[in-house]
């Protein structure tokens, strides 16, 4: 038996999942923790990780280390995604993590991140034909799935944090900023030639903004467990109604929306905009939510390599 710890350093959040793996390869998650350290904040056009953002993220990792150090038979895998992948000073950050936390972090390519999303979804959700959309803080990943196999995948460098900063979507959203954001997102999607093959296919959603969308609607429907989103689904109309409600006020008003974490209110419009644009672009009628993504994909790969 071992306890596999996955430290996932994202652009907006850093997460830890501890999975207890038995000798036969079966496993269960025994601990999950998240901290919104917002590593990609203020990176700008120069793609530079800011000192304060790095300090916040490393402090969160140190807190996680205090937790997983209490367990026996621990193996730690550290991964980083878009913010570190895009940063011109990523070596500085990775060196500080190594010095403070004592781990070597693997920086995933965009394609590898998308692939792990695919593995996590198809092994847990059971949808054989779909388009997977993972919206992170600084990128979104798209994976076309046909008969359970990934046929195309791509990572696009736009996410909740960098879209919100670039198009001024944090507080009250003006019509011109909304139009500019939608126009540019649609332009990025139009560059992906194979995307049109997923017209009217269901979307499977991953990422913090999408999870928030699910929680808001589950709260509105008076569901007891608003975080139990795996397999939950919404229609095109429900998604757009929720998005339009967010546009009707400023950040302070959004902080009052039930199911929306207050510290996500400044990036939720930018975080949902790729989804809203994509649904119109592909004439999507329904979306499904998955709680399994990159981390579960890594666990699956690890077990296949070491236990089978």
From TrEMBL:
Signal peptide feature range: none
InterPro entries tied to this protein: ATPase_NBD, GppA/Ppx_hydrolase, Ppx_GppA_N
Domain of life: Bacteria
Coiled-coil parts of chain: none
Gene3D superfamilies per the UniProt record, alphabetical: 3.30.420.40, Exopolyphosphatase. Domain 2
Residues annotated as domain Ppx/GppA phosphatase N-terminal: 24-306
Family, as annotated: Belongs to the GppA/Ppx family.
Descriptive protein name: Exopolyphosphatase
